[in-house]
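dude i think i finally got it to work??
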Amino acid sequence: MKAHNLRLLISTILFFFINNYTLAEENIRYYDIELVVFENLEESADNNEIWPSGKQLVVPDNATILGQKFKGELPPEYDSRHLFKLLSLDDYQLKEHSDMLKESENYRVLLHMGWRQPGLARDKAIPIHFTHVISENTEEPAPQEGTVPNSEPDVQSVPASSIRSLANLEGVINIVLSRYLHLDVEMLYKKEADDVSVDMYDTSFLEERSDREPIYYLKQNRRMRSKETHYIDHPKFSMLVRITPFKIEVPKITVPNG
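look at this
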C-alpha cells in the first residue's frame, strides 16, 4: 500500500475514534464540588428557635464515603480517576471566602472540602455521606482543611484540660443532573462539651451524649448554576457551595509521516 493511502486510512480511523470518543464524553459529565460549612457564633442563633434532640440522618444504602474506594456500580465508560475523589487544596475556589469567614468574630469555619464526581440523573445519582469531627484545644492542632472525612489518622489522646469544645458534623449530599443541576443536602451539627479525656478522632462518644443537648438540623433542595457560588442559609450553621464542570482532555494522536 502506498504511503499516501496508508496515511489516509490511518487518518480516517483516527477521525472516527476521536469523534466517537467525543460523543461519548458529551454524555458523561464530571463536576468539581466544593463546600464551606460555617457556624454562626452570635448568641441569637441559639435563641431564635427550639432545636430538636435525638435527630439522626437516614443514610441511603447506595451512599458512598469520600476518601474510600468507590464500591458502587457505574458503566465502564466512567473514568475511575474521577469518581468521588477529593480535590487538592490547589483546586479550591472558595479559599478567599473561607479566609474571610475565619477572620470574622461572628463565624467559625467547620469544614472546607471538595471532591470530583460524575453528573447523574436522579434515578442513578449517588449520594455522598461524610462525618467530620471538629475540635478546639490549646495543645494539639485541629485537622487541617482538606483532610479526608472518615479517614483514620494516628490516634491522639487530647488532655481534658486542653479541650474547649468538641462537635460532630454529619451530612448526606446528593448532586443530581437533569435539565439543571440540583443539590439535595441534609446535615446535622452536634455540639458536645465534657470534662473528660477523649480521642479527638473517635466519634463514638457522640452516641452517648445527653438528649438534652441540641442538634442543629439543615435540609434543603436547591437548583444550582455551575460556576456560581450558592449560599445555603440556616440560623446556626450555613454553607457555601460551588459546582464547576470538569473537562477531560481528548487524547492527542498524531498521524505518522511517510
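DSSP finds three helices and twelve strands in the chain.
im so relieved honestly
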